[in-house]
Write a structure and sequence with these properties.
By secondary structure, this protein is α+β, with helices and mostly antiparallel strands. The protein folds into two domains: 139 residues, Jelly Rolls, CATH 2.60.120.10; 74 residues, Orthogonal Bundle (Arc Repressor Mutant, subunit A). 42% of the residues lie in helices and 25% in strands. It contains eight helices and eleven strands. It has a four-stranded antiparallel beta sheet with strand order 1-8-3-6. A four-stranded antiparallel beta sheet has the order 2-7-4-5. The protein is elongated. It starts with 12 loop residues before the first helix and ends with a helix.
Length: 219
């Protein structure tokens, strides 16, 4: 599984064996918190199966989902290197298995392997680029455009000529928070798009009836 992490792929067998010694596997049932905001970061994580949401809670109990981490994705590298506490809390959305890789071995590899350091930085830069794109989306697009963009991104075929079907990767409540919407607004937009014969939603299953026309809707 460690070979699935991009910046570990080129490591020698000796180095990877050393990483294994600093790695532990964790199993979290749905709803369990992995760490809280303010906890110290002592390494980073890699999701094997399940989902982890990174979120912030306000004083009145409202929750803002910053990111949803899916299988074969890592999180926590930047906070680990800054040696600062976590700015978010992490919670299992589904029953989840993940790896925790200790900070010490990562720092050791950075000190003696410039290629490893560059790959690690490249991965964090891509994550930052994605987050900046999210901020742009949430700031400049309407609620309907955000939902349409999310649906088209989830199926990966914006210009398809035929209907596409897929299951939403996480709960509607989590998707709403991720898109900076209330669950009620997300439901209203789903209903609006359904009435326009653009989508059909049944539980978590979504059918895009006309992906190209959907992309043009609400622009």
């Amino acid at each position: 599984m460690l070979r699935q992490i991009s910046f570990f792929r080129a490591l020698s067998e000796e180095d990877l064996t050393n990483v294994v010694r600093h790695t532990r596997e964790l199993a979290l049932p749905r709803g369990q918190v992995l760490f809280n905001r303010g906890d110290p970061a002592q390494g980073f994580h890699f999701v094997i199966e399940g989902q982890i949401k990174l979120a912030i809670s306000s004083a009145n109990g409202n929750e803002k989902v910053v990111e949803v981490i899916h299988p074969m994705q890592t999180f926590g590298e930047a906070v680990m290197l800054l040696e600062r506490p976590y700015p978010v809390f992490a919670q299992a959305v589904l029953d989840t298995r993940l790896l925790h890789i200790g900070q010490g071995i990562v720092s050791e590899l950075i000190d003696r392997d410039p290629m490893f350091a560059r790959k690690l930085l490249a991965g964090m830069a891509m994550r930052l680029h994605g987050l900046v794109q999210d901020v742009e989306t949430y700031s400049l697009r309407s609620s309907t455009q955000r939902v349409i963009g999310y649906l088209l991104q989830s199926c990966g075929e914006e210009n398809a000529e035929v209907p596409l079907e897929f299951d939403l990767p996480t709960s509607k409540q989590t998707i709403a928070s991720r898109l900076n919407l209330t669950p009620e607004t997300l439901s209203r937009i789903f209903a609006e798009l359904s009435q326009a014969d653009l989508i059909h939603v049944h539980g978590k299953h979504v059918k895009l009836l006309d992906p190209r026309r959907l992309a043009e809707y609400g622009g």
